[in-house]
Structure formats: C-alpha cells, structure tokens
C-alpha cells in the first residue's frame, strides 16, 4: 500500500483516538469492586462524570481514582452522581475503581446490582473551547483554529510518546537478548565442564577397577 494511502488513515485514527471520550456503562453487584484503567498523557486535564442507579439505602458505592503510584487523585464515598476534574504532571495509567458495600441481614435477599454510567475525557476533549473563546474574546473560526492547533500538538505528543516507548521496548528486548545469550553461553560452559568431569571421573573409576588401562 502506498504511503499517501496509509498516512490519511493513520492521521484519522490518531485524531479519533486522541479526541474521543471514554464512556462505559456496567452493572456492579453488592460487595464487589471493579476497576477501569485509563492512559493519560503528561500535563493532561482529566474530566469525568458518573451516575449510579437508585437503590436501597443498605447498599453504598464508593468511587476512588488512583495513579500508578497509589496516590489518591479523587475519591467520593456513597457516590450517586457527580463530576470531577484533575490534572497529571507526567504520563500515568490511572485506575478508576467503584466498590459497592452492603450488610445483608441473614435470611434477606441481596439487593439488585447497581447500574453505573461513567464517562471520562482528557486532553483536547476535556477543554471547553466555548469558555476559552469567551475569556479570550475569540471568534468562532479562531476558537476552531485553537482547537485544531491543540489537537495537532496532541498528535505530535502522542507520536513522540509512542516513539519513546518503542525505543524503551527495543532497549529492553536487546538487553533481554544479551542476557539470554550470556546465560546460554554460561549454561553450555557448565555442561561442558560437567561432561569433562564425568569423563575423567569414570576413567579413574574404571582404572581403579582395572577395567581399562
């Protein structure tokens, strides 16, 4: 396939990937925990919304968002409906965890699962360009150009991040290959030494038994 046919498709995929919002809906049974993982780039603003179905007072659902180091980015006990926003200073894989807690009396049927609707946006998608246009007194065309400029920067940053990860993975693979090679050579030397020792031992043994001269 020619380059001019590949490039537009690749750019379209990158634009869609960067600007799309992650939305999901699922059911969570009582006394269970479910975590979602989201990749967030450096200096990204993260915004999200959540809404839980109405249920009995006996069941409560907690929301907790942690970074890769276990630091709390956002938390809410007995979450029902709300929004959150925060930013990250470096590339992160954040965990969004919902946990339902209930004390079911003996002989009572457990309450039904809660339906959770969750949406998260980050990067260009998280910016409100209407507010930016009002604050900076931008015309609609200027606001759209600002959005396209931010999107272009996000694409460049994404490509640079992928290239960096590729270099890291290549370095890891080369280092692993070198270690495997050294281990193979060491194993062969050990086997060669063990074989030589066995031959010498058996030769001395057979000489002691006068089976060979």
UniProtKB/TrEMBL annotation:
InterPro entries registered for this protein in UniProt: Emp24-like, GOLD_dom
Keywords, comma-separated and alphabetical: Membrane, Signal, Transmembrane, Transmembrane helix
Gene Ontology CC entries for this record: membrane
Subcellular location: Membrane
Keyword Membrane: yes
Transmembrane residue ranges: 6-29, 180-200
Family: Belongs to the EMP24/GP25L family.
Name of this protein: Transmembrane emp24 domain-containing protein 10
Signal peptide: none
Pfam families in the record: EMP24_GP25L (PF01105)
Tagged with keyword Phosphoprotein: no
Domain called GOLD: residue spans: 33-122
PROSITE patterns to which the protein is assigned, alphabetical: GOLD
Membrane topology type: Single-pass type I membrane protein
């Amino acid at each position: 396939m020619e380059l001019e046919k590949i490039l537009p498709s690749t750019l379209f995929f990158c634009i869609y990937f960067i600007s799309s919002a992650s939305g999901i809906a699922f059911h969570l049974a009582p006394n269970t925990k479910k975590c979602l993982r989201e990749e967030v780039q450096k200096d990204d603003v993260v915004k999200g919304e959540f809404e839980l179905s109405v249920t009995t007072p006996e069941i409560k659902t907690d929301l907790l968002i942690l970074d890769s180091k276990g630091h709390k980015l956002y938390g809410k006990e007995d979450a029902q409906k709300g929004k959150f926003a925060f930013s990250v200073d470096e590339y992160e894989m954040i965990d969004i965890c919902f946990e339902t807690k209930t004390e079911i009396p003996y002989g009572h049927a457990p309450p039904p699962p809660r339906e959770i609707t969750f949406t998260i946006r980050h990067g260009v998608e998280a910016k409100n360009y209407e507010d930016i246009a009002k604050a900076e007194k931008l015309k609609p065309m200027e606001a759209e150009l600002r959005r396209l400029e931010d999107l272009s920067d996000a694409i460049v940053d994404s490509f640079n991040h992928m290239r960096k990860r590729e270099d890291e993975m290549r370095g890891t693979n080369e280092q692993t290959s070198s270690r495997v090679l050294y281990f193979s050579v060491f194993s062969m030397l050990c086997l060669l030494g063990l074989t030589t020792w066995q031959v010498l031992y058996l030769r001395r043994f057979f000489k002691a038994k006068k089976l060979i001269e």
